[in-house]
Design goal:
8 helices, Nuclear Transport Factor 2, Chain: A, nine-stranded antiparallel sheet, ten-stranded antiparallel sheet, 39% strand, Beta-galactosidase, Chain A, domain 5
Length: 680
């Protein structure tokens, strides 16, 4: 008999635990045939315990609350969604149902099996076959059908029916699996599929738009790109650590130099970071954050034409970032001494699947950490920066996203997203142009669009489990008015505003005032008597270009501000609510929660940071878009009494040197000039 091993309360469910949770639910519905025959499993995750049961900075919790699984179950026969809580008993390898709740009028995320079945249904539909023949395509093996969720645009999109509105593309060769079929979009065909019944309920061949001709630049596999020959002047680059890495991994617990944290994983969020703490000398492990994760991606398109106006994907809530995670390859996705972690999740019919090498953990050189050269003596001290990186990569249809959490030796945490993959394109009639995009090739254009990422930061600055002493202040740098206090007209200063309540904490970035936000612990002071804190430093950002009444903003009201701050509440996990797919309820999630206007003074703080990029496609983004970087920083702000990076040792082989021993032009050296003029 399989056994469940004792695990830390925050460890993701193991494959055995997922299987046990599923079998427990199946056993509970055996007596109800209409439920049993149609039951499908969307998600099985750990029901995370109360924070008081979690020890920050410890590989094994001193308290072991019950292991519980939370399951989202969809009934394909009745079109109902339910949430089950199952308690898992390790010693007996048994489970019991704690609760089961039917959630009315919602649609859970789409599953890959539904995607596959939807493609088959469309390609077998006689009117679709005829429509493709009108475009010169007889071979259905050439056709690619991407079953996009419909979003919510009308009563027809109501959750009463589980719907998909496929977008169609076409390859040129049926025996070439890596051909870029996205370079030949099929325009002018409208399809609406009832995914529950797997039947086409609406179909119209609206307009005959010729397929873009095969383009010599379209492919991206080695040897098949334009020219057909890879460059030959790239020499090997080896990253070696002969003594091994500086990090230590015990299960899901990671220690690296003075950092410690736990790695988690969910099918919706992918990588989750728990219990972030920093070892600060005699003060011990100091908590910084309880839980960090990416909770949503929204990609609205700016072309008002069909089908592009409906392309408003919620990649986490409609598809799942973790569910679409890649199995990473050594020397391809990560370099150096790499530690991989697998991820386990359910498939649609209740089988357990494993994504091998799903999460990557490795060290990277990051250039200079700090340096100073004394101009009088010519002596220099320099330290090189190293960071610990944990990451995963997911592919949602045409786009690929790589998510990174970087931990630095000076106490910084960086969240980074790398965007790559293939543009979602449209076809043009001969001589046609579109103001809402970029012509990429003859008969082919890429609509303008935006990518928005939402990260949920449950901070815990110097807060132990059960404590809630954090607050958030906003800092704006102001120019002093000209007058007696500023006679030289050069003065500027930081102005601090306490964000006292949730409605006050709906904020936007403002680079002109260097705006940033600091999470402080009001009861822990640094050596000069100020509260300890961590600040959120925005990177490049934007707001939605769509009008305030755009239909997708009914579900994505959280995009209207770059920062939201809420008082922690169980169940407030996703900015658009748990079920954004076809959700007709305006402003569900963050926009509704903050109407309570709860106090943010001395409480358990959750920061929701929304950051985005406006993508005006370039020719150079085709056929595969080179990586675009976006992200933000969490930096210590009065958290330490001085720079925590001062004890980093010098690089091996690097010693303080005078200018005379360095290979420089001594005649132009400031140090040598000083010695010439001031030597006795």
């Amino acid at each position: 008999m399989l056994r469940l091993h004792s695990r830390h309360p925050l460890d993701p469910l193991s494959a055995n635990e997922i299987a046990l949770a599923i079998s427990t639910v199946k056993a509970a519905v055996n007596s109800t045939p209409e439920v049993k025959d149609g039951i499908r499993f969307i998600e099985v995750v750990l029901l995370e315990p109360d924070k008081s049961n979690v020890a920050l900075g410890s590989p094994i919790s001193t308290k072991l609350p019950p292991r519980r699984a939370r399951l989202i179950v969809y009934n394909k026969r009745t079109n109902e969604t339910s949430i089950w809580i199952v308690e898992l008993h390790a010693m007996a390898y048994s489970g019991n149902v704690i609760s089961c709740e039917v959630v009315p009028n919602v649609q859970p995320p789409m599953d890959v099996q539904e995607d596959v079945e939807c493609e088959v249904v469309v390609k077998r539909y006689p009117p679709f076959i005829e429509a493709m023949k009108r475009r010169g395509i007889d071979d259905m093996d050439l056709v690619m059908v991407d079953p996009w969720c419909v979003g919510y645009h009308s009563e027809a999109d109501s959750p009463r029916r589980r719907l998909a509105k496929p977008i169609v593309f076409c390859k040129t060769k049926s025996n070439c699996p890596m051909e870029n079929g996205y370079a030949r979009p099929v325009e002018g065909i409208f399809i609406l599929v009832d995914v529950q019944r797997m039947e086409i309920i609406e179909f119209e061949d609206c307009k005959l738009v010729p397929l873009p001709p095969p383009d010599p630049f379209r492919n991206y596999t080695s040897g098949e790109t334009w020219g057909g020959v890879d460059r030959n002047d790239v020499k090997p680059l080896h990253i070696i650590q002969p003594e091994g890495p500086s990090f230590h991994v015990n299960g899901n617990y990671v220690e690296w130099q003075k950092w410690s944290f736990r790695i988690g994983f969910t099918p919706r969020e992918g990588l989750v970071i728990h219990c972030v703490a920093y070892l600060d000398g005699s003060r011990g492990r100091r908590p910084i954050a309880h839980r960090l994760s990416f909770v949503e991606i929204v990609v609205p398109y700016g072309d008002p034409n069909d089908p592009h106006y409906r392309k408003n994907a919620f990649d986490a809530g409609e598809d799942g970032l973790g569910r679409n995670a890649n199995s990473l390859k050594r020397a391809c996705d990560c370099l150096g001494f790499v530690k991989y972690l697998d991820a386990h999740l359910t498939n649609f019919v209740g089988g357990v699947e494993t994504i091998e090498n799903c999460i990557c953990l490795h060290e990277e050189d990051e250039g200079i950490l700090w340096k100073h050269q004394d101009w009088r003596s010519g002596l220099a001290e320099v330290r090189r920066s190293r960071r610990l990186t944990t990451s995963f990569i997911c592919t949602v249809a045409n786009y690929d996203y790589a998510f990174y959490w970087h931990f630095y030796q000076d106490g910084k945490i960086e969240a980074e997203v790398k965007l790559t993959g293939i543009l979602s394109m449209g076809a043009l009639e001969p001589g046609e142009s579109r103001k809402y995009g970029t012509i990429i090739a003859p008969g082919l254009y890429a609509p303008i669009h935006q990518h928005f990422f939402v990260v949920r930061l449950n901070m815990a600055v110097d807060s132990k489990p059960g404590e809630a002493h954090n607050q958030v202040v906003e800092i704006n740098v102001r120019a002093e008015e000209h007058g007696n206090k500023n006679v030289h007209n050069n003065a500027f200063y930081p102005e601090e505003t306490l964000l006292r309540s949730e409605l006050q904490a709906k904020r936007d970035c403002n680079p002109s005032s260097a705006r940033h936000w600091i999470v402080r612990n009001t009861r822990t002071l640094n050596r000069i008597g100020q509260p300890t804190g961590y600040k959120l430093v925005p990177g490049p950002n934007c707001l939605p270009m769509a009008g305030s009444e755009a239909m997708f903003l009914r579900r994505a009201a959280f995009l209207k501000h770059n920062l939201w701050v809420t008082q922690y509440a169980a169940g407030e996990d996703f900015p658009g609510g748990e079920f954004p797919n076809q959700n007709p309820r305006v402003g569900e999630g963050l926009a509704s929660w903050v109407k309570q206007d709860l106090s943010l003074e001395e409480t358990d703080i959750v920061m929701w940071y929304v950051f985005g990029i406006t993508h005006v496609p370039r020719l150079e983004d085709y056929p595969v878009m080179p990586v675009q970087h976006i992200g933000f920083m969490l930096q210590p702000h009065g958290f330490f009494n001085c720079s925590p990076a001062m004890d980093v040792p010098p690089p091996q082989g690097c010693h303080s040197e005078t200018i005379e021993t360095c290979h420089v032009d001594k005649a132009s050296s400031p140090t040598m000039i000083a010695k010439i003029f001031y030597s006795p």
